[in-house]
């Protein structure tokens, strides 16, 4: 069985927009799990658009284990407890007890029966009485916050469904290799499969990058004048929309619509910033950055406070790279302040990438690098 996009489109590509467009039209996409070099592939589609034909396509090209990513609240509402041993899954897949539809099916294993079960899992009007346990479809609890919380297949699948305007419930299954049937399809084989079936390919990294560059990450909450040793700043407070963390921007002068604005991005370090610990240079760097910006008469210090941390730097939330998130938060804050291009006071590859992803041309401020390095 072969599925083709409307109009006979067969190009692949990695653009999330194209994957979302395919899912809007009820088509599956190929998702590459690029957390490892092998990059195994998965078929993914919005659960509410699944038909008998698409369920048969999933079964034909996978091991037959069909999974449905669901928000945790839905798993709780439908009384879907964790499968025994799920906590020890090496890929972190939070599988729940398998289910079948309680009515409208025969054995539960046919494409028609599994499509009905998937549709019921996607239906907000379904209740726990609509399912029998065990069954032939595996519900998987997706972490709240999607790939921002955990960079897993279930989270990426649910995020794609949400981006397509569907409920964040997605059918997914691991693609079997046609070349080596005992293994999963990966690498170049994914592109070949996508071309053969007219599907779009996308990776977990693509989904993360798309969300970081397009979604609002903070909201402005308060503005106040704050006299500091280096001078008076306009302090703007921001609330993190993803993790609830509170961030600050210390603004000197009028950087709105400014080009080449001096910027220092600082991660909160309690022991260094507050107590002056000699084990790090955080306090020194912050003081020098404020002095440099004040001397120039314009600039911004973005003070980031990683959620749930109290010591030097931050730690990752789940398996997602929190440092990448914080760099993107800084970029969003600068865009909100009207900054149009940036001179970074320290050369940080992650910061530069995040700023450029948000449309902020970036270069390094040579004098400041010498002053605070």
Question: How would you describe this protein?
Answer:
The protein is an alpha/beta fold and 373 residues long. The protein folds into 2 domains: 6-212, Alpha-Beta Complex (DHBP synthase); 217-372, GTP cyclohydrolase II (Rossmann fold). It contains 12 helices and 14 strands. The protein has helices at 16-24, 52-60, 72-77, 111-122, 153-163, 188-197, 204-214, 270-274, 282-296, 322-336, 349-357, 366-372; strands at 29-33, 40-46, 66-71, 99-101, 131-142, 170-174, 201-203, 218-228, 231-240, 246-252, 261-267, 299-304, 342-344, 362-364. The strands form 2 sheets. A 7-stranded mixed beta sheet has the order 4-5-3-6-2-1-7, sandwiched between helices. Helix 2 crosses helix 4 and helix 10 (322-336) crosses helix 11 (349-357). The termini are far apart. 47% of the residues are buried. Mean pLDDT is 88; it is low at 1-14, 309-318 and 369-373.
Could you provide a short overview of the structure?
The protein is of the alpha/beta class and about 375 residues long. The chain is built from twelve helices and 14 strands. The strands form two sheets. It has a seven-stranded mixed β-sheet with strand order 4-5-3-6-2-1-7, with helices on both faces. A seven-stranded mixed β-sheet has the order 8-9-10-12-11-13-14, sandwiched between helices.
């Amino acid at each position: 069985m072969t599925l083709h996009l409307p109009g006979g489109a067969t190009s692949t590509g990695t653009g999330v927009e194209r994957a979302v467009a395919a899912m809007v039209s009820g088509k599956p996409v190929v998702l590459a799990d690029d957390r490892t070099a092998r990059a195994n592939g998965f078929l993914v589609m919005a659960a509410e658009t699944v038909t008998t034909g698409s369920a048969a396509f999933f079964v034909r090209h996978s091991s037959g284990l069909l999974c449905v990513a669901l928000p945790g609240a839905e798993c709780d509402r439908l009384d879907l407890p964790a499968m025994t041993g799920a906590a020890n899954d090496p890929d972190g897949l939070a599988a729940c007890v398998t289910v079948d539809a309680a009515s409208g099916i025969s054995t539960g294993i046919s494409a028609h029966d599994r499509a009905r079960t998937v549709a019921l899992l996607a239906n907000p009007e379904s209740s726990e009485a609509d399912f029998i346990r065990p069954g032939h479809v595996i519900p998987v609890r997706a972490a709240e916050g999607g790939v921002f919380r955990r960079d897993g297949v279930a989270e990426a699948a649910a995020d794609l469904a949400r981006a397509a305007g569907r409920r964040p419930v997605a059918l997914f299954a691991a693609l079997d290799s046609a070349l080596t049937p005992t293994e999963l399809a990966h690498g170049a084989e994914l592109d070949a499969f996508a071309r053969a079936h007219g599907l779009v390919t996308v990776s977990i990294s693509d989904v993360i990058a798309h969300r970081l560059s397009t979604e609002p990450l903070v909201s402005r909450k308060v503005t106040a004048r704050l006299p500091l040793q280096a001078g008076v700043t306009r302090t703007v407070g921001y609330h993190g929309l993803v993790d609830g963390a509170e961030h600050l921007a210390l603004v000197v002068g009028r950087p709105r619509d400014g080009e080449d604005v001096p910027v220092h991005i600082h991660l909160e370090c309690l022991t260094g910033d507050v107590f002056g610990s000699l084990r790090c240079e955080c306090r020194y760097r912050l003081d020098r950055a404020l002095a440099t910006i004040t001397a120039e008469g314009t600039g911004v210090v973005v003070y980031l406070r990683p959620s749930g941390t109290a010591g030097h730097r931050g730690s990752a939330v789940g398996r997602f790279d929190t440092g990448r998130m914080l760099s993107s938060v800084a970029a969003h804050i600068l865009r909100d302040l009207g900054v149009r291009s940036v001179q970074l006071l320290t050369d940080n590859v992650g910061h530069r990438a995040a700023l450029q992803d948000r449309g902020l041309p970036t270069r390094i401020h040579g004098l400041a690098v010498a002053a605070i390095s």
